[in-house]
Amino acid sequence: MLGLGTAALGRPQYINIRKDKNLNPSLESFRQDSFNTLEKAYQLGIRYFDTAPGYGLAEDVLLEWLQTKEDETITVATKWGYTYVANFDANAKVHEVKEHSLEKLNAQWQVSNAFLPHLKLYQIHSATLETGVLNNAAVLNRLAVLKKEHPIEIGITTTGSNQLEVLQKAMDVTIKGTPLFDAFQVTYNVLDQSLETMCNTLAKQGKKIIIKEALANGRVFKNSNYKHYSKLYNTLEKLAIKYHVGIDAIALKFCQQNIKKSIVLSGASNTEQLISNLQANKITLLEEELNSLKKLKITPVAYWQERKQLPWN
User: Fold this and answer.
1) What is the DSSP string of 163-203?
2) pLDDT tens by residue, 248-283
3) For the structural domain made of 2-308, what CATH number should be given?
């Protein structure tokens, strides 16, 4: 199924490749557009919304919108560990700061818990081996307490070329003999397919798998600066023409079909993109078409090195 990630709805600048370089909305109009996109997503059947305090206005706008609904089927997932610091300045040198301390967990939970009872999943935002969060007993025990008290599921999101190693480490985390983590939000797309086997294994074990960056931060779209992806562009374009959908829908469907029972997040920043993304629900790719796309993968190291060069725009 498709869910809606709110990173692009909470801050005008995000790591991406955009065709329109003149995006400079007022904060008021940006907020209203984000609210409208949430409403449109709901009207189109989306019931899973992913957010984070590191996404600028996202939690605030989502909460405001949620208060207009009386629907128990709406699910909210949020995170802790990043603080948005750019103050909506397009020229900011730093947009977000990571901190995986117990103090940050407690502070951000005091805001995020306003989503209860719709809040079903609470995640460590971009868990890495470097921060030591998966070895931090105080943090892990606090998450276990939150899981028991509310109750909610606990998960992690992963980023970087060593996602597989982080997932394996997280799977070993237990509290009083019980696995702590119920869900894993990972980067997976046509270019970085490194977690396919692991994710399908976890899904068979009853774990929830959420796919982010399914469009590879815009790299699936034809761009003269990325001529090394000409075969990717041609393959996606042919499939888009065949199925009468956008390239985005093909890329999203690839994720849906390869990671069974996953929630694939649309990162749409407006209603037009959202409507286009949701065309993925109307098609099914053939096995040979999936295989042709699988052949276009690159190594995780190459993928993440290139991603680091993408601008905030």
Assistant:
1) HHHHHHHHHT-EETTEE---EEEEE--SS--TTHHHHHHHH
2) 999 999 999 999 889 999 999 999 999 999 999 999
3) 3.20.20.100
Q: Which two tokens stand for residue 138?
A: 């105080």
Tell me the one-letter amino acid at 313: N
Answer yes or no: is pLDDT of 23 > 60: no
Place of tokens 């117990």: 102
Eight-class DSSP state of 11: -
Helix, strand or coil, per DSSP, at residue 83: strand
* Banded pLDDT at 96 (limits 50, 70, 90): confident
144: buried, middle or exposed (CB in 10 Å: 19+, 13-18, 0-12)? middle
212-235 residue pLDDT tens: 999 999 999 999 889 999 999 999
**The pLDDT value given to residue 92:** 75
**Which H or E run includes 261?**
none
Beta carbons of 199 and 255 less than 8 angstroms apart? no
Q: Are 50 and 186 in contact (CB under 8 A)?
A: no
Q: What is the DSSP letter of 279?
A: G
E strands present in 75-127? 75-80, 82-84, 96-98, 119-124
Sequence letter at residue 261: K
Q: Residue ranges per domain, the chain?
A: 2-308
How far is the C-alpha of 58 from the C-alpha of 79, rounded, in Å?
12
Task: Answer for the pair 8, 269: CB distance below 8 angstroms, yes or no.
Answer: yes
Q: Could you check whether the bond before residue 179 is cis, i.e. omega within 30 degrees of 0?
A: no
Output the CA–CA distances (angstroms, integers) from residue 6 to 54, 58, 60, 83, 299, in the order listed. 10, 6, 11, 15, 28
Are the C-beta atoms of 208 and 184 separated by less than 8 Å?
A: yes
CA separation (Å) from 71 to 33, 65, 136, 154?
22, 12, 37, 23
Pairing of strands 96-98, 119-124: unpaired
Backbone phi, then psi, for 75, in 5-degree steps? -115, 130
**H or E element at residue 135:** none
